[in-house]
Amino acid sequence: MQPIRPNDPSSNNLSQAKSVSGSDTSGPDRSWSEPTGAVKRISNHRPEVISIQHVWAGYDHEPVLEDITLSVKELDFIGLIGPNGSGKSTLFKVLLGLVPTRQGQIRILGQSVQQGRRHLGYVPQSVQFDLAFPISVWDVVLMGRMGRRRLLQNFTSKDHERVEVALRDVEMWHLRDRSISELSGGQRKRVYIARALATEPKILLLDEPMAGVDAHAETHIYDLLKQLNQQITILMISHDIGAIASCVKTVGCLNRRLYYHGDRQITPQMLEMVYQCPVDLIAHGVPHRIFPRHLTEEINR
Amino acid sequence: MIEALQFDFMRNAVMAGILVSIACGIIGTFVVVNRIVFISGGIAHAAYGGIGLGYFFQFSPILGAVIFSVISALGMGWVQRKTRQRADTIIGVMWAIGMAIGIILIDLSGGYKADLMSYLFGSILAVSSSDLTIMLVLDLIIIVLAFLFYKELLAISFDETFATIANVPVDVIYLTLMCMIALTIVMMMRVVGLIMVIALLTIPAAISGLFVRNLRKMMLLASILGMSFTTVGLWLSYSLNLTSGATIILVAGAAYLLSVAVQPALHRTPSVLAPRPEQPLTAPAQLATDPISPARPPTNPVRRIQRAITAYLQKSRNGQ
Question: For site-directed labelling of B194, which of A60, A98, A150, B239 has its Cα 20 to 30 A away?
Answer without folding.
Answer: B239
